[in-house]
Design goal:
This protein is α+β, with helices and mostly antiparallel strands. Helices cover 11% and strands 24% of the residues.
């Protein structure tokens, strides 16, 4: 099957994200009630959602400062489309954080990062910017970034690196400076979907043995709490690509 593009270093503490729905909170309330107590109404409990921090994970060795603020970071890289929708919320109140800069970076199909091409065994043009960049969240705390599904390199499962900044200053060259870094983490992909993607020709040329989620030394099987994306197909075939969504809880105060 042929892929197509559709236009559209420091280890830090591990933390969790939990967003309890009203139904979940109500169930907990019933469980903790004394025997014979009346069942509490669910509507007031729905407002009692609880948020805690998304787990932070290592920045890794491939971060570069001052990347472009842009919604499409794929440049000329081949691979299947990946459209990320990341919602940033305050961990204490669950309120969305607007105007926060969500920055990502990841390797290409061959496992190479821009600015470091050659370190994973391949030689290709390197402008230091491909598959890097970020966008400001809107009033609903949502950042949408278009890229390609990442490849892999020795010792790591398929992943994307993530930072969330506030109070950044946009520069005339389209980049950003300053601000406060609220979160450093990683995004992960379903092993079932990654196996399908790895079979496509653009990814199959990467002959490095692929590390699975279960084998990875950093991902801790924590699901969405540890950055596991919810993936939805963009079409009827794997080559059409995927949409990935996640709510990221950060400590904003």
């Amino acid at each position: 099957m042929t892929e197509k593009w559709v236009t559209f270093p420091t280890q830090v503490g591990r933390r969790t994200v939990l967003k309890a729905t009203g139904a979940t909170a109500a169930a907990l309330a019933v469980t903790s009630a004394s025997p014979g107590a009346p069942t509490p109404p669910t509507s007031p409990v729905a407002a009692a959602a609880v948020c805690t921090l998304t787990r932070e994970m290592t920045e890794g060795p491939y971060y570069l400062d001052g990347q472009y603020v842009r919604a499409d970071i794929h440049e000329n890289k081949t691979g299947i489309p990946l459209k990320l929708t990341l919602t940033v919320v305050d961990d204490d109140t669950c309120a969305p954080l607007s105007n926060a800069l969500v920055e990502i970076w990841h390797c290409d199909a061959l496992g190479e990062y821009s600015g470091f091409v050659g370190q994973n065994g391949h030689t290709e043009p390197d402008n230091g910017t491909f598959l890097r960049g970020g966008v400001l969240t809107n009033s609903s705390g949502v950042a949408t970034i278009t890229s390609v599904y990442p490849g892999w390199y020795r010792g790591r499962c398929v992943h994307i690196h993530l930072k969330v900044h506030t109070n950044v200053t946009l520069t005339p060259d389209g980049s950003f400076t300053g601000g406060q870094e609220l979160h450093t983490g990683q995004l992960y992909f379903s092993e079932t979907i990654t196996r399908r993607v790895a079979a496509l020709s653009t990814y199959a040329v990467n002959t490095v043995p692929r590390t699975t989620l279960a084998q990875d030394s950093i991902y801790d099987e924590g699901g969405a709490a540890s950055g596991l994306l919810t993936l939805t197909a963009l079409g009827s075939s794997t080559s059409a690509g995927y949409a990935g969504t996640l709510t990221v809880g950060v400590e904003s105060s």
